[in-house]
Write a structure and sequence with these properties.
single chain; 198 residues; mainly alpha; 76% helix
């Protein structure tokens, strides 16, 4: 009986190890090639398993991308309130949040670049990216809620800050050879001009 339990436990451990190996292979290939260019065969070869083994662990694209996204974000978590919540002055808090995101994008650029590039071609990416977009909306809402400006200016601030928090905005500014700090200074000038507009 003990041997049987041991064998069952060992099989379960091996299954977990194989699943993790597949997820890590997916993540590496997605970053290297992009999600749309990563085939099941390539994942299986990278992981050193059969294609059927990949399907056994991930029967559809949704489960595959959910696992891959969860693992990647676990290794590269999005900036969180803790990165700027101790900054009391509202404008400085916004600047701190923007700098946290821009530095994050600097360190994770390749994965975001290929993900957004392939977003329209890979249906299973829609849900994970929608969750990221919803998170950016929450960050924006929390930051704007602190601003003591009129409703009209607050709406404009909200729209501009949401745009500023996007990876695509950071990437566009990067092409102008701006440092992350210079990008933040530029965006803050936009926001403050809008807040002072009549």
């Amino acid at each position: 009986m003990k041997k049987r339990k041991y064998r069952q436990k060992r099989r379960a451990e091996q299954a977990r190890e194989t699943r993790q190996l597949i997820v890590e292979s997916m993540m590496a290939l997605h970053e290297e090639l992009g999600p749309a260019q990563t085939s099941i065969s390539a994942i299986a070869e990278h992981a050193g398993v059969q294609r059927l083994t990949v399907y056994r662990h991930f029967p559809d694209d949704a489960s595959m991308f959910k696992a891959c996204t969860s693992h990647w974000l676990g290794l590269h978590p999005l900036p969180a309130d803790a990165d700027w919540e101790e900054v009391e002055e509202p404008w400085q808090r916004i600047a701190s949040a923007l700098l946290a995101f821009y530095r994050y994008y600097s360190g994770t650029e390749r994965m975001w670049q290929v993900t957004y590039r392939d977003l329209d071609d890979v249906d299973a990416l829609q849900a994970p990216i929608a969750a990221v977009e919803a998170y950016l909306d929450k960050v924006r809402d929390d930051l704007v809620s602190m601003m003591k400006v009129k409703a009209k200016e607050k709406k404009i601030l909200s729209l501009t800050l949401r745009h500023a928090l996007r990876f695509s905005t950071w990437q566009s500014l990067k092409h102008e050879n701006l440092s992350d700090k210079k990008m933040v200074d530029l965006v803050m000038s936009w926001l403050q001009c809008q807040a002072q507009s009549k």
